[in-house]
Amino acid sequence: PFLTWLSELGLTELEVRKAITSHPQAFRCRLEENSKPVVLWLKGLGMDNSQLLKTIRKFPQLISSCSLEDNLKPRVQWLKSLGLDDSQVAKTIMKHPHLMGSYSLEENLKPRVQWLKSLGLDDSQVAK
After folding, report:
1. Distance between the two ends of the chain, CA-based, in angstroms?
2. What is the value of pTM for the model shown?
3. What is the rounded (10 degree) CA torsion for 5, 57, 116, 90?
4. Helices 49-58, 36-44: inter-axial angle, 10-degree rounding
């Protein structure tokens, strides 16, 4: 069902194979409990289908192994606290989807932003 669903989203057979080959452990998730809610949530941020596909191609783990409640929502709330609106958050996720799952919010992302602020950058500059 998961592979069929990826194809229905618009990924080609080659892209599906590449994603599975590069991250096989990521595709053991539950479609109804994990992947579909993440896709719906990303669309709710304003991501259209072409942006969603581009994001999945870059970082397939986003829809297969990133927890909506534990990873994605806290990171998006944090990005919004920097002054980003939903469309800017969607654009950030599309350009840098690995930020949603590869780095610890507390140990990596927040300290880096604090460091940038210590250099004199404000939230809007950091968010860019």
Report:
1. 38
2. 0.81
3. -50
4. 130
